[in-house]
Amino acid sequence: MSSDVRRSSSSTSSPHYWVTFAVLAASVAAYALLQSLVTPVLSTIQHDLHTDQATVTWVLTAYLLSASISTPILGRIGDRVGKERMLVATLVALAVGSLLAAVASSIGVMIVARVIQGLGGGVLPLSFGIVRDEFPREKVAGAVGLLAALLAVGAGLGIVLAGPIVDLLDYHWLFWIPLVVTVLAAVAAKLLVPESPVRTPGRVSLLPAVLLSAWLVCLLLALSQGTAWGWGSGRIVGLLVAAAVLAVAWVVVESRSSAPLIDMRMMRRPAVWTTNLVALLVGVGLYATFGFLPEFLQTPSAAGYGFGSSITQSGLILLPSSVTMFIVGIASGPLAARFGAKALVVVGPAVAVVTFVLLAFAHDSVWQVCVATGVMGVGFGFAFSAMSSLIVEAVPAEQTGVASGMNANIRTIGGSIGAALMASIVTSGARPDGLPREAGYTHGFAVLGVVTLAAAVAALLIPRTRPAVVEERHAELGIVAAGTLVGSEPE
């Protein structure tokens, strides 16, 4: 039986599929908020848990690394044993990690808790798969797009909400509140989300999972410790060589596997690999900025830079990025229909480069930083919305969920690389009082600008889709304009 027939029969027996979507949205939102809620309070956690800046950065990096590894693994297990069952298990893991983080009394326990929370990355492919199996065909692309958009929106909202939560309560509540949301989502998923009868035969191979984990750990450890150990030291060179060898081995094993975690044939499609390359580079810039700009803003002005901002104030300074990203997301559909999604993916990172030029060389006033974050929302907003459209256009309808999930996951991998790289640059040559030197931030933001410029150049490699093909794919998937959701059933 084809996947379309199975989806049709499933949706007929379950007419209230938007209830399922609400549960999935709550699950994705809880995961997305935990990505960014802690970033404005890293300095607070550093002080409370008596650690240094390089170590506390792993509170962010460990979460992104764990999510990068667990996303394809849990998605593949869900295909085999049942997506609803694995969704509940993933939410339980997210809740356990939140509970452990809320009561953590040492940096080691906090990092372990964040690794457990990173298992929540499995929410993405599982939710996409449930949508693909349970929703009417014409609703799939729009629902997947909305769930993917929650990641970017959640990242911005998390930074803004962190301040008021900490001011009214304390930073532990940044974990208690998501814990409550996650537990409610797990109960709702168990009671309201139907178990899909769709199963993918074949065993779950452990070797690809081990190789994926190994090369990512080697790479991130080298990037984060490069300054401390010396970039030319044997340990760093050895880790980088090991990461390269293990990454090649992982690609070879996945390509030959009968049941791969990641379908390399799909990933080799020109429109897919080029768009994913842009996603990786954009992820480096976005997550590193969200991770380190709040710390820059919260640095006491007596240090010669920074504004001594509170957590709430630093979140508000970053608010323009969420506002402009939301506005651009609305406008991107008509613009992509007129100029093409590729044009937006090229223009988006090119615009975002202005952000890093401003942050590196014009950060003496709050209004300058606000302008920079607003520009960032425009640039990355165009890139995110258009990349989703390009991925949908590039793959068969039945691969929409997994392809969109991998694009989002690759952004997360980029984010973990960006956080580790930025930590290494910012913490190099710290001042006697332990604060980073202003030059560390200047060099770090300049490097992120170069990476984002590389994203714009990489976007030029994306094949141009002929308008007739775009219209055909949009008609097939129920998309009125690139990236927009059809709001009602066709009559």
Automatic annotation (TrEMBL):
Listed PROSITE patterns: MFS (PS50850)
Subcellular location: Cell membrane
Span of domain Major facilitator superfamily (MFS) profile: 20-467
Pfam families assigned to the protein according to its UniProt record, in alphabetical order: MFS_1
Keywords tagged on the record: Membrane, Transmembrane, Transmembrane helix, Transport
Main localisation: membrane
TM segment ranges: 16-34, 54-74, 86-105, 111-131, 143-165, 171-193, 205-224, 236-253, 273-293, 313-331, 343-362, 374-396, 408-429, 441-462
GO cellular component, one term: plasma membrane
Membrane protein topology class: Multi-pass membrane protein
SUPFAM superfamilies associated with the record: MFS general substrate transporter
Stored InterPro entries: MFS, MFS_dom, MFS_trans_sf
Gene Ontology terms, MF aspect: transmembrane transporter activity
PANTHER family in the cross-refs: MAJOR FACILITATOR SUPERFAMILY MULTIDRUG TRANSPORTER MFSC (PTHR42718)
Protein name: EmrB/QacA subfamily drug resistance transporter
Native species: Motilibacter rhizosphaerae
